[in-house]
């Protein structure tokens, strides 16, 4: 279903509905037309909830304004807002994204009892000894022996990985998942990676070459290193 409008366009998709809001209109005008359009046709009582994506374009809304949109959609139809997308972010959000995408290089050995914590990716040139701990909101790359504890994605990012030249950790954590060291010894010939295998929903250790195939976004790490 597609409805032409200068302010609100409603389009049916395979996943539900998309509401595209004109970013050249006032917020109040958008609310008024959205209420009118969603009141035109009802839904059957037995019909399941329909997921809705709201696209704001070049418009920024406060949390209170977003909640108002959600309330209108929920009241007028058997709909539930799954996400609200905007092409604009605040300065604070941009700075947070920049901070979380940066790489922190450290050259040292992390000894027992020491903890190193960074925002973004951690590149450690050195060893993590048993009892030592490294933590990052992003990925962890250890060019050395990882025998202690490593926690990547500690703010909840399950797409992060932990890589080490020699992987024999006391403990690996990725977001909220936890894994002990594998029973077998690693020869340390290839860099190994700890990552969340979505098929089994658990942390698995595999050669970095295999993980790159599963997570091509890791290549952005190389680009950021080259671009400084």
CATH class of the largest domain: Mainly Beta
According to CATH, what is the topology of the largest domain?
Pectate Lyase C-like
Put simply, the count of helices is 5
Radius of gyration based on Cα positions: 24 Å
Terminal CA distance reads: 47 Å
Q: What structural category arises from helix and sheet content?
A: alpha/beta
Number of strands: 16
Tell me the count of domains: 2
Whole-number average pLDDT?
A: 80
Helix content: 10-25%
Strand order of the largest sheet: 6-8-10-12-15-16
What percentage of amino acids are in beta strands? 35-45%
- Uncertain regions: pLDDT < 50 for 5+ in a row? none
- Architecture of the largest domain, CATH level 2? 3 Solenoid
Shape: elongated
Largest sheet: 6 strands, mixed
Could you characterize the architecture of this molecule?
With 228 residues, the protein is an alpha/beta fold. It folds into 2 domains: 2-85, Transcription Regulator spoIIAA (2-Layer Sandwich), CATH 3.30.750; 95-227, 3 Solenoid (Pectate Lyase C-like), CATH 2.160.20.70. It has 5 helices and 16 strands. Strands 6-8-10-12-15-16 form a 6-stranded mixed beta sheet. Helix 1 packs parallel to helix 2 (63-76). It is elongated and about 65 Å long. The relative contact order is 0.08.
